[in-house]
Design goal:
Strand order of the largest sheet: 3-2-4-1-5-6
CATH topology: Rossmann fold
Helix content: 25-40%
Distance between the termini: 20 Å
Oligomer: single chain
Largest sheet: 6 strands, mixed
Shape: globular
Low-confidence stretches: 140-149
Radius of gyration: 14 Å
Structural class: alpha/beta
Mean pLDDT: 91
Strand content: 15-25%
């Protein structure tokens, strides 16, 4: 199964003075990233591929540490590339136990009828890129959810 993870909550884009790609997770986002470790524990993960944006990398870093994996960044998953190159990358990874962390919008490029994909939510995809399950943003306990909403 391929797991599409939307980056966790980041600081306000308008209040951030630096480049948007450098905007980090805020406190809530860091808690969400830590809780993903527990929420995604039942899933096999052999690779973690992320947008190079700081908020995406930071979202999957706790999971990478817990699984003793590296976070691989790929420009195809950047905001500018995800609708074309990012979709092609996801298609090439289909059927593999991979976590892909990206920005909102990728779901529309990959899926015909995507579920709502909130920050820190996960869409579980089968080998045919069919939605198998949606996990909402994890709460502090890291419990699994039933819907992406």
């Amino acid at each position: 199964m391929l797991l599409l993870v939307r980056h966790a909550q980041a600081g306000d884009r308008l209040a951030w003075a630096g480049p948007d790609a450098a905007r980090p997770l805020d406190g809530r986002g860091r808690r969400q990233a830590e809780a993903l470790v527990v929420q995604l524990a039942p899933y096999e993960v052999a690779r973690i591929v992320s947008s190079p944006a700081a908020r995406c990398v930071q979202t999957v870093e706790p999971l990478a540490r817990a699984r003793d994996l590296a976070v691989e960044t790929d420009d195809a998953l950047s905001i500018d590339g995800q609708s074309t190159d990012g979709a092609a990358l996801v298609e090439s990874l289909a059927g593999n136990p991979v976590v892909v962390c990206a920005h909102g919008g990728l779901e529309h490029a990959v899926l015909d009828d995507p579920p709502r994909w909130r920050k820190a939510a996960t869409i579980v995809l089968g080998p045919d890129l069919r939605v198998l399950e949606g996990l909402p943003p994890p709460d502090r306990s890291g419990r699994r959810g039933k819907a992406v909403g």
